[in-house]
Amino acid sequence: MSATILYWSLTAAQVMLSIAMALALLRMVFGPRAQDRVLGLDALYLNSMLLLLTFGIGSGRAIYFEAALIIGLLGFVSTMALAKFLMRGEVIE
Amino acid sequence: MSNAADLPLWAAIVVSAFLLLGSGLALIGMIGFTRLPTFYQRLHAPTLGTSWGTGGVVMASMIYFSVVGGRPVFHELLIGIFVTVTTPVTLMLLAQAALHRDRAEGDPTVPTSIAAGTQPERDDATT
């Protein structure tokens, strides 16, 4: 009973997060300007991090948590560098 | 689904509720992200996913691993704290970059900067 509830809610959560990733990808590809694309990339890595956490609940293994943590760390740095690049035209002054 | 069968019913219901809350809010935020008209409005939409979207999924993961493992597991809290701290920094910097680009293009819809109005007076005072 509990396994069935968890299975279907995990499936629904993964489908919703996949649709969210597709919408973010749509904005990243067709975004009218560069800042829309950067924001789409930011939203894409955030949703992929949440999707990895749901994979971790589904498999019961801790390796997905570490992957999600690394995605969060590197995504923050990359969005920061891209925003800096949009503002100044160079990353390191 | 290796050891989900020995999960009690209340834990399965609580984990499912937090999972559906988190992923549903992330989906709502992304729908707003594709539908809102201007960039400065779109900037607000992903924060649904970073605040309660991340909070719901992280809390579901914490409850699941704590109940299955039989001991408190709190390391998912790291992701929640990290995302909560870094999102405002990222989005503020991105908004500043977008404002800078719009002003450099002479876009009339964005407000002009305060420093631009006071710039000639400061030049007169220094020279």
Main attributes of the structure:
A: 93 residues, mainly alpha, Helix Hairpins, 3 helices, 87% helix, elongated, B: 127 residues, 76% helix, disordered C terminus
Could you explain the architecture of this structure?
- The complex is a heterodimer of chains A (93) and B (127).
- In chain A, helix 1 runs antiparallel to helix 2 (34-59) and helix 2 (34-59) packs antiparallel against helix 3 (63-88).
- Chain A has 3 helices and no strands.
- Chain A has helices spanning 2-30, 34-59, 63-88.
- With 93 residues, chain A is mainly alpha-helical.
- Chain A has one domain: Helix Hairpins, CATH 1.10.287.
- The termini of chain A are far apart.
- With 127 residues, chain B is mainly alpha-helical.
- Chain B has one domain.
- In chain B, 76% of the residues lie in helices and 0% in strands.
- Chain B has helices spanning 9-35, 39-42, 47-69, 77-105, 114-126.
- The termini of chain B are far apart.
- Chains A and B meet through helix 1, helix 2 and helix 3 of A and helix 1, helix 3 and helix 4 of B.
Chart the SSEs and their pairings.
The complex is a heterodimer of chains A (93) and B (127).
Chain A (H helix, E strand, L loop, with lengths): L1 H29 L3 H26 L3 H26 L5
Helix pairs in contact in A: 1-2, 2-3
Chain B lengths: L8 H27 L3 H4 L4 H23 L7 H29 L8 H13 L1
The number of distinct helices of chain B, counting runs of at least 4 residues, comes to 5
- What profile does the largest beta sheet of chain A have? none
Q: Provide the β-strand percentage band of chain B.
A: under 5%
Overall shape of chain B: elongated
Low-confidence stretches of chain A: none
CA radius of gyration of chain B: 23 Å
CATH topology of chain A: Helix Hairpins
Which sequence of SSEs, written as H and E, runs from N to C of chain A?
Answer: HHH
- Helix amount of chain B: over 70%
Average pLDDT taken over every residue of chain B: 84
Order of helices and strands of chain B: HHHHH
Percent strand of chain A equals: under 5%
Gyration radius of chain A, rounded? 16 Å
CATH class bucket of chain A = Mainly Alpha
